[in-house]
């Protein structure tokens, strides 16, 4: 399994193309774009509609100027409308009801205009005060039952949220994400260099999926961020790519195998930035995925 994963990563690495655009370095690879600033801050982006297509969902796309509008026709007659820019970056995702009404699920329109640098999307806030035990702030799925997982992913922010934030601000701002409790899905471990979730491990996501399903049934517009992580072995670019693909693998399983609506999930890879075990060596514990509810950050609401 490790060899197969390494071969797949080698293939991606061989197909990367690097260019310089202004004050950032752009690294393009199949399905992903990696951006490195002069301050060595590095992020990864992907086409936000690719996950829908990979799942074989009934979608159709139309180019409108510089934007692409992709519509997913749900079996219940509603439509999920995703608007992306020329690079595949999400601008807005909404649900269109059968009566024509439309509700915005994710608004990712940049506050300071469309050409903002990604570094300007990093929000710095003081660390939120933690008034609960740390093991209930970051919950290990392997040691938790469905009740605790549900409580964790539906809990309000641990500190007041100053305003409404864009999805990219949430993705790139650890201080902001720290306002929400999270579940470390340590029941899933990845082989080194691989983003494959083996069938026996996929079944371990059932408890997570059941909790998410309950949350979505209660509030259909909930948004959950699936975060991918790696250990510190290898280059930061390789690890960003690996972690992003790990997050997408888990999100796809939650939809394909357990029926979690694709529109209620979004993904982001962080590479080796947030190690669970502080080691520069090979660590299965660091090759993991985390789930976090981000709805209050996107809406600016501080209550459940």
Automatic annotation (TrEMBL):
Region Disordered: start-end pairs: 1-21
Segments forming domain OmpA-like: 177-302
Highest taxon in the source lineage: Bacteria
InterPro entries reported for this sequence: Bact_OuterMem_StrucFunc, OmpA-like, OmpA-like_sf
One Gene Ontology cellular component annotation held by this UniProt entry: membrane
Keywords: Membrane
Protein name: Outer membrane protein OmpA
Lineage: Bacteria, Pseudomonadati, Pseudomonadota, Alphaproteobacteria, Hyphomicrobiales
């Amino acid at each position: 399994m490790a060899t197969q994963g390494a071969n797949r990563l080698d293939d991606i690495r061989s197909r990367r193309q690097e260019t310089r655009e202004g004050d950032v370095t752009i690294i393009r690879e199949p399905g992903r774009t990696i951006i490195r600033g002069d301050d060595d801050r590095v992020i990864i982006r992907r086409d936000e509609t690719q996950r829908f297509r990979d799942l074989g969902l009934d979608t159709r796309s139309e180019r409108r100027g510089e934007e692409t509008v992709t519509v997913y026709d749900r079996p219940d007659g509603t439509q999920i409308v995703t608007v992306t820019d020329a690079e595949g970056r999400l601008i807005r995702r909404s649900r269109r009801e059968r009566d024509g009404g439309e509700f915005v699920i994710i608004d990712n329109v940049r506050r300071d205009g469309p050409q903002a640098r990604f570094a300007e999307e990093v929000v710095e806030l003081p660390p939120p005060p933690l008034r609960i035990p740390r093991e209930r702030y970051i919950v290990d799925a392997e040691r938790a039952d469905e009740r605790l997982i549900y409580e964790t992913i539906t809990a309000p922010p641990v500190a007041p949220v100053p305003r409404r934030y864009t999805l990219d601000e949430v993705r790139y701002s650890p201080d902001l994400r720290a306002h929400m409790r999270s579940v470390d899905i340590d029941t899933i471990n990845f082989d080194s260099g691989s983003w494959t979730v083996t069938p026996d491990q996929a079944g371990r996501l059932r408890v997570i999926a059941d909790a998410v399903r309950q949350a979505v049934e209660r509030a259909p517009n909930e948004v959950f961020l699936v975060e991918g992580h790696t250990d510190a072995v290898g280059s930061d670019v390789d690890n960003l790519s690996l972690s992003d693909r790990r997050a997408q693998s888990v999100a796809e399983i939650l939809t394909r195998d357990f029926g979690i609506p694709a529109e209620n999930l979004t993904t982001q890879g962080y590479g080796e930035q947030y190690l669970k075990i502080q080691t520069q060596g090979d660590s299965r514990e660091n090759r993991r995925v985390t789930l976090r509810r981000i709805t209050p950050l996107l809406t600016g609401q501080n209550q459940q």
